Amino acid sequence: MSDTLTAIGLMSGTSLDGIDAAILETDGERALKHGAVLHQPYSRDLKIWVRRAIKAALEGRDGAAEIGKASGEVSYAHVAAVEALLEKAGLRRTDIDVIGFHGQTILHRPARDPGTVGRTWQIGNGQVLAEETRIDVVSDFRTADVAAGGEGAPFAPIYHHALVSAMSPAPGHAVGVINLGGVSNMTYVPTRARGIDLIAFDCGPGNGLIDEWVEFRTGEAMDKDGALANAGTVNEEALRMMLLAPYLRRRPPKSLDRHDFKIDHVKKLKPEDGAATLTAFTAACIAKSEQLLPEPVGEWIICGGGRHNPAMMKALEDYLRAPVKAAEAAGWRGDDLEAECFAYLAVRSLKKLPLSFPTTTRVPRPMQGGIFHRTPV
Q1: Helix, strand, or coil here: 215?
Q2: CA 344, 345, 351, 354: dihedral to nearest 10 degrees?
């Protein structure tokens, strides 16, 4: 196997906004060259099918027809994303060594007590993707971690480490990387860290609760540019009640399902006040998370869709003590980082390198992962 491989990473997050696809050349240790990227929105019908699948999974109806239907639709949407990305990049399928296919999470329930077994479920068929694209695929990154007693998330820390390690000049302090997707998660990268030194965990909600609230009260998909939150006032009592959630006191590593937090405490508020309160709650959860770290963070780098929300970025600046900057200010591609990550993890999987660590997912030892799907000859 060549030292450097060219991979496509595919990520579809819990916000259900669509598929992010990115090309990355990597040796599984360093991110050597960043290629073309693409965002393909989910259709309205696909969102409906995925939401039905999530509902069925949460209700324990594993064999429900809507899960099978959603899985097929997700698979073929990813086939289309790969084809569109290759066309955009001017590449042939033979130019790509592997696809890292995350799939669409419909259930994430890590073990909460010793001796119990957790579960994580990403729909989408890796073999179908390999057959349709005629490119080898690595999928199902999280299952081995959960089966070994890990949280199964977050999985980006080792890629965050690669990006921080490549920064010039090298940071002389600990760096905190926050991904604001449906949930918010953190990677803590100590000075001169190795992979085994990383600390990572889900902090709390990211954009998910705000999106749910805005759709519930206005019919819109999100609080565009933070306009609703900026027009509102934080309800301190509702914020105080939400910050009593037991999850926020748990020691890391720890992970969340998108549906573990609810909008119940803000349901009686005006739309703008609810948006302001939920935005503050996301930032406050991240600030609480810093208290669980061994030493203060010297700078925060914000990735994911939430960094486009000025109200969210202002809330983070208010709640966090160190400077806060968007991924682009660090030279990163913030919209594409998770897709790049799964390209990187696919190469690591092929090279039998660990994807997760005891301090990132609570797995008992550095853990390999992923299932390989070979394209038909």
Answers
A1: helix
A2: 130
Residue type at position 106: I
Which residue, chain included where needed, has tokens 């709640």? 319
Contact call for residues 11 and 342 (beta carbons, < 8 A): yes
Range in 3-7, 21-25, 220-224, 250-254 the model is least confident about: 250-254
Domain boundaries, given as residue ranges, for the chain: 5-150+339-373, 157-322
Q: Which two tokens stand for residue 375?
A: 């394209």
Q: 157-322 in CATH: which number?
A: 3.30.420.40
pLDDT per residue over 222-263, tens digit each? Answer: 999 999 999 999 999 999 999 999 999 999 988 887 788 999
- The predicted-structure confidence for 312-322, as pLDDT tens digits, reads as follows 999 999 999 99
Two tokens at 303?
């990735």
The CA-atom distances, in angstroms, between 240 and each of 243, 275, 277 are: 5, 15, 10
Other C-beta atoms within 10 Å of 69: how many? 15
Phi, psi dihedral angles at 38 (to 5 degrees): -155, 140
**End-to-end distance of the chain based on CA atoms, in angstroms?**
18
User: Can you spell out the DSSP letters for 269-324?
Assistant: S-HHHHHHHHHHHHHHHHHHHHTTSSS--SEEEEESGGGG-HHHHHHHHHH-SS-E
What does the alpha-carbon distance between residue 286 and residue 284 come to, in Å, rounded to a whole number? 5
| Of 140, 106, 155, residue with least CA distance to 255 | 155
Identify the helix (H) or strand (E) that includes residue 224.
Answer: none
Please report, as a single letter, which amino acid is at residue 246. Answer: P
CA atoms within 13 A on the CB side of 151: 23
Name the pTM for this structure: 0.90
Residues 6+ apart with CB under 8 A from 296: 174, 290, 321, 322
Q: For 229, left (φ over 0), alpha (ψ -120 to 50), or beta?
A: alpha
CA distance 262 to 283: 16
Asked if residue 351 lies in contact with residue 1, where contact means CB atoms within 8 angstroms, the answer is yes
Q: How far apart are CA 292 and CA 365, in angstroms?
A: 21
Q: How many residues does the chain have?
A: 377
CATH second-level architecture of 5-150+339-373? 2-Layer Sandwich (3.30)
